[in-house]
Amino acid sequence: MEQELRDLYQELILDHKRHPRNFHEMADATRTVEGHNPLCGDHLRLFVKLEAGRIADVSFVGEGCAISTASASLLTEALKGKTVEEAETLLSKMVELLTASEAPTDPMALGKLGVLAGVRDYPSRVKCAMLPWRTLQAALSDDAPAAISTE
Amino acid sequence: MNAPQRVTTWDVEAVRADFPILAQTVHGKPLAYLDNAATTQKPNAVIDAIAHFYRHDNANIHRGVHALAERATIAYEAAREAARRFLNARSANEIVFVRGTTEAINLVAASFGARFQPGDEVIVTAMEHHANIVPWQLVQARTGIVLKVIPMDESGALQTEQLAALITPRTRLVAVTHVSNALGTINPVAELIAIAHQHGVPVLVDGAQAVPHMPVDVQALDADFYCFSGHKLFGPTGIGVLYGKAELLESMPPYQGGGDMIRTVSFEKSTFAPPPQRFEAGTPHIAGAIGLKAAIEYLERLDRLAALRYEQELLAYATERLQTVPGLKIVGTAPEKAAVVSFTIDGIHPHDLGTIVDRYGVAIRVGHHCAMPVMTFFGVPATARASFAFYNTFAEIDQLTDALHRARDLLV
């Protein structure tokens, strides 16, 4: 049971929970979207600076559990410098990693983001890991809404 | 860490034997079910009564002339009488079966609230859960009433003395929770009702979190409406009770239309049955009512004052033991509390706590407890909540405390 919890709360997740990366507001963001999970009260604001079809910078602030904070922090690290197309590909892979009925054959193909694969064994926690990614999805859409809500 | 010797006359092991679900392991650990404010477990008496109904007596009620229909009708109406006795209502006609507390409040909002005018006022408390806020906001959207709030202090105790100042000639109802689900605070409802009645204002009491813990006498309280859910009272889900004073119920229009709530129907006009049938359109949850009766009879066989004393010992013990966890803060420290402990731990989100203690066999609730204004008041997004019933043990509180220490080891 200790090991199962360690699979969920891996060191990398705990490190990002304790020291979230890119955790600040961004004054010159081109897109700012609020993500909110009404079931648990978690919320984050994701800031994206798009320049010539590329994510020049990305940051977040908010309040959430270890899983959602680490997921958001890892997201910002993974996206910086990516084109919008690359970000969308990564987004769909993450959605698949977290929600597809079949477990991914090689989660580590996603690099560090693969540590979130353990969340699949905790169905009630999948939405925590998903929140930053759903928020990103909204931020990347052409008619980016100001706020999204997940359950 | 063993529980110190406790002086209690309560035979908890005998009671636990009545609840088969408690004797299981979860993730290889004995189950410590500490989520009783969300729903309670069911004794064999309730499970058996429901099974017996479906095996032997199942039929629709109030319309059949065959043997099963008569048995089902008698059993359903006997459940109403049990609920009357349980609340000490004057008449079984003052007992309306509903799906639960939420539906009871919606019924009062829709029916009693049908006569509200723009500018009329409904007063609630700062510690209501959403079920006693949102129905009034729906009335507000429809008719333009004003919603007023009795404040609470930093401990989560209601500022009862503020009520009189909030009441005006436009106040039509005071709607208060008896016990807060998120904080455990026991409100002085008798006092609140007396104040409201001095101004001629009726009072609805949400008793969902009160009836599992303490005997309630609606006549002694002089409550105008009192409601509770069966599933928080060791009975089935999907059944609950709205008590209303006969003269109030008789003055109220139907809530939903359909079968069994009418006297006559023609295509020109229908006339409605008297309460409680007026408010029970369609086939009700017959088995649920029968299960609720079994739950009430189970409670009547217990020494409820001894159960209450025992729960207060659990509360005191949990309050003391949980505070050994570094960074733990109890949210809601009113002097009068039911056996509910809401808390936060610095550096750990309640959802992570919930997941981790579950792996140690401990079931607690985490989140905003459908009481977002309470969370806002205390400046927290969510809390973890351990809520106790008379079948919980001191050892389960130790199990929770140990699991919280392990959560800190893992996450902080």
UniProtKB/TrEMBL annotation, chain A:
<dbReference type="Pfam" id="PF01592">
    <property type="entry name" value="NifU_N"/>
</dbReference>
<dbReference type="InterPro" id="IPR002871">
    <property type="entry name" value="NIF_FeS_clus_asmbl_NifU_N"/>
</dbReference>
<dbReference type="GO" id="GO:0005506">
    <property type="term" value="F:iron ion binding"/>
</dbReference>
<comment type="similarity">
    <text>Belongs to the NifU family.</text>
</comment>
<dbReference type="GO" id="GO:0016226">
    <property type="term" value="P:iron-sulfur cluster assembly"/>
</dbReference>
<feature type="domain" description="NIF system FeS cluster assembly NifU N-terminal">
    <location>
        <begin position="9"/>
        <end position="128"/>
    </location>
</feature>
<protein>
    <submittedName>
        <fullName>Iron-sulfur cluster assembly scaffold protein</fullName>
    </submittedName>
</protein>
<dbReference type="GO" id="GO:0051536">
    <property type="term" value="F:iron-sulfur cluster binding"/>
</dbReference>
UniProtKB/TrEMBL annotation, chain B:
<keyword id="KW-0808">Transferase</keyword>
<dbReference type="InterPro" id="IPR010970">
    <property type="entry name" value="Cys_dSase_SufS"/>
</dbReference>
<dbReference type="InterPro" id="IPR016454">
    <property type="entry name" value="Cysteine_dSase"/>
</dbReference>
<comment type="function">
    <text>Catalyzes the removal of elemental sulfur and selenium atoms from L-cysteine, L-cystine, L-selenocysteine, and L-selenocystine to produce L-alanine.</text>
</comment>
<dbReference type="GO" id="GO:0031071">
    <property type="term" value="F:cysteine desulfurase activity"/>
</dbReference>
<dbReference type="InterPro" id="IPR000192">
    <property type="entry name" value="Aminotrans_V_dom"/>
</dbReference>
<dbReference type="Pfam" id="PF00266">
    <property type="entry name" value="Aminotran_5"/>
</dbReference>
<dbReference type="InterPro" id="IPR015424">
    <property type="entry name" value="PyrdxlP-dep_Trfase"/>
</dbReference>
<comment type="similarity">
    <text>Belongs to the class-V pyridoxal-phosphate-dependent aminotransferase family. Csd subfamily.</text>
</comment>
<dbReference type="GO" id="GO:0006534">
    <property type="term" value="P:cysteine metabolic process"/>
</dbReference>
<dbReference type="GO" id="GO:0030170">
    <property type="term" value="F:pyridoxal phosphate binding"/>
</dbReference>
<dbReference type="InterPro" id="IPR015421">
    <property type="entry name" value="PyrdxlP-dep_Trfase_major"/>
</dbReference>
<feature type="domain" description="Aminotransferase class V">
    <location>
        <begin position="33"/>
        <end position="400"/>
    </location>
</feature>
<dbReference type="InterPro" id="IPR015422">
    <property type="entry name" value="PyrdxlP-dep_Trfase_small"/>
</dbReference>
<keyword id="KW-0663">Pyridoxal phosphate</keyword>
<protein>
    <recommendedName>
        <fullName>Probable cysteine desulfurase</fullName>
        <ecNumber>2.8.1.7</ecNumber>
    </recommendedName>
</protein>
